[in-house]
Amino acid sequence: MSQDVRARLVPVILSGGSGSRLWPLSRDLYPKQLLALTGERSLLQQTAVRAALAAPAQRPIVVCNEDHRFMVAEQLRELDSTASSIMLEPVGRNTAPAIAVAAHQARALAGHDALMLVLPADHVIPDTEAFTAAVERAAATAASGRCVTFGIVPTRPETGFGYIHAPGEGEEARTVAAFVEKPARERAEAFLAAGGHFWNSGMFVFPAARFLELLGRHEPAMAACAQRAWEGAERDLDFTRLDAAAFSECPADSVDYAVMERIDDAAMVPLDAGWDDVGSWSALWSLAEQDRDGNARIGDVIAIDTRGSYLRSEHRLVAAIGLEDVVVIETGDAVLVAKRGAVQDVKRIVQQLKAEGRSEHVAHTETFRPWGSHEHLTGGDRYEVKRVRIRPGGSQSLQRHLHRAEHWVVVEGTARVTRGEETLLLAENESAFIPTGVVHRIENPGRVDLEMVEIRTGAYLGEDDIERL
Questions:
Q1: How wide is the angle at C-alpha 100 spanned by C-alphas 58 and 71, nearest 5°?
Q2: Are 444 and 403 spatial neighbours (Cβ–Cβ below 8 Å)?
Q3: For the packed helices 208-218 and 220-231, what is the interaxial angle rounded to 10 degrees?
Q4: Which of 44, 168, 431, 457 is deepest in the core (most CB within 10 A)?
């Protein structure tokens, strides 16, 4: 890749999915791309590291759900990294509108000739060297004005992925002959035997101007809405808020349907780098380290006479006896038990939770905020107990409550408490009481996380009983 092409290549990380097939670990407000499923780093962080290796000249553009903004920013900060833009989608509209607003942003950052390396935030790619080499080949092709996708060299007759038919030899870019929907087993086996068929990865290199031109030709309403959403965007701290009305009017569609399947010069670069989209618990089982009985055991797990299973504990002991080819996932408020071959249907559980008006698909018992997080531990009609973590330098807003009092006990770290006209400095095992109606704030002035227990008492304990000052 020439220096000119390298300088024009802008990583675009799409982080808008919900990952419902990985429930109960993945939730609407804490989706799979923000989870550390295959190592110490989250899938988003792994993607950001790969993007920096493949396109080091430009900081990434991240497009994410507005509800995830603080977690996305914090996870990038943990890498000592920042995005050039964190663009907030007020509603999900699939990949084509997300890439369209990122294309406008990329041109603003790198000029009219900007190239975009578009990467979903929820993929696993162990061989970063092969990935970087494939990006170089794709960028060279995109620099000539073509839209390029990556085709994954298949290792099995997979029925859960779409396919790309691109005959040819070697690792260089090929012309796409056809995009194929997810096939039945027999057809997938035929693809594998015939060769020239690749899994559709959902990763691309686009010339930004060319992409916008094609979108305007094939989906003019979408292109117009995306442009208005970008032009009407407002800066908010580290974030770029897209114009909500304009973006909400965008037709929802994938980039494959909106653009790639409607052009006759689409290119594909083969990629053989251990790719997986981590779309199910069975996929995670295949990626995980397994014991001699074929079990992947994560967390506090005991397995006796159990084989071929994925067993994951987040909070408490999970004990399995006499099981085979199952998935057991334990979280703070839900447990999933399924046959390993049936995990593609986990999303049906999520659909049922939504239909019944339940909340277990939305969030975990731990809720994340810009300053840290709080986790529900227990409660009753007139009390609630939470564990609160405030990161170094973090501070809650100055506020008061009309219906509840609060008692804070410091477990670890140091707390600076504003209580009315007072300022208190609390160390471990010290506490402060906040009466109903008193203005207050808690801050962490230290260099380690502040951990404390918060006890709420009163007639009404809802999160909306708060007046921020």
A1: 60
A2: no
A3: 130
A4: 44
